[in-house]
Predict the structure.
Amino acid sequence: MTTYLLVPGMWLGAWAWRDVTRTLRARGHDVYPLTLTGLADRSHLLGPGVDLDTHIADIVRLVEAEDLRDVVLVGHSYGGLPVSAAALRLKARIRQVVYVDAGPLPEGTSQLALGGEDPAGFTDGTVPPRPWDAQADPVLLAGLDDAALTLLRTRGTPHPLAAAAQPLGTRATSADLPTALVACTFPPDRIAAMQAAGHPFFAGLTEARIVSLPTGHWPMLSEPEALAEALLSL
């Protein structure tokens, strides 16, 4: 049996991992899908003090409170930031870190800075969900059917601005812990080229195993069975 802790990206909660969780549990594994503070079923806790440190603490506290060990820690998209920092703090309890279309960004980088966005452009203390328009964004939203898009539109919640704007501090890389990348929107050859060029997306994954899962940026909704199989293969 393997213990999986699943951390979603921006605007999502534990609900996004529902089908992946069901598959992993059906195979006999222990699975903890996590909702980060201020989002989804924890949106009532949203406030200006909810930052990246809060989300790192969410992961650390769950692992410690449940006394989890030999954990496969999975971070999707933005979730890769708190996962990479929490993994270093929990190093003795982690079997492997898996990034889903994400990675351990360089120290000092924030989610907003990575996208070239100015925090001053968000006036209510949150980053609103994207429009979830498949025609306008065919690459990132590839593979999502109407039901999945409707789910994202109805269940997605604003992301705490401070969490997206806070620079990442000390974090684990593939040199610290066994690490894997489930690559969805980037083919492996492009990842290799970006690594060679020193691109920040994959700079911390030089020793990582890469599994290709061609689909959009939300594989837990577009290809949940394939994503579960990819996690099991690791």
Notes: The chain has a mean pLDDT of 96. Strands lie at 3-7, 30-33, 71-76, 94-100, 126-127, 159-160, 179-183, 209-212. DSSP finds nine helices and eight strands in the chain. Residues 65 and 229 are 28 Å apart (CA to CA).
